[in-house]
Amino acid sequence: MAEYTINVSHPKKLIEVIGSGEVDLAIYKEAAEAVAKLVVKHEYNVFYDLFNTRINLDVESLAQAPRTVKGKDNVAAHNIYTAAYVNNRDYQSWKFIEIQLHGLGFNGRVFRSKDDALAWLAENTRS
């Protein structure tokens, strides 16, 4: 089972999520809903460090995961940027979720480099 911590960095205007372990649909939904509440409160971009996680979702769950999150229709969630730093093993699965999120109107990208992910978010941070 996955574990995660969520930190809000006011100087960076960033919500940081650090995960480890196995990600199933329940933990995906739990973490995403917790982050959605913080996005509404702060309107900060989101950085997911998922390098030490492992996806345990079948293709149907991968396709449905973004649609199951409460708060996904909030306007604030569509005005922020989300970057995920992932490992090579699960890169294609996270890219599939990225495509689903784009279809729902979210601004998110998956990266194999933590530095690239953070740089992309910095370029897209509102002042």
Residue share in β-strands: 25-35%
How does CATH name the architecture? Answer: 2-Layer Sandwich
**In one word, what is the shape?**
globular
The CATH class, by name, is: Alpha Beta
Distance between the termini: 37 Å
Please, what is the oligomeric state?
single chain
The major sheet is characterized as: 5 strands, mixed
Whole-number total of structural domains? 1
Order of helices and strands: EEHEHHEHEH
Please name the CATH topology: Transcription Regulator spoIIAA
How much helix, percentage-wise, in residues? 40-55%
CATH superfamily: STAS domain
| Low-confidence segments | none
Task: Please state the CA-atom Rg, rounded to the nearest Å.
Answer: 13 Å
Number of helices: 5
What is the topology, as strand order, of the major beta sheet?
1-2-3-4-5
Number of DSSP E strands: 5
Return the structural class: alpha/beta
Average pLDDT confidence is 88
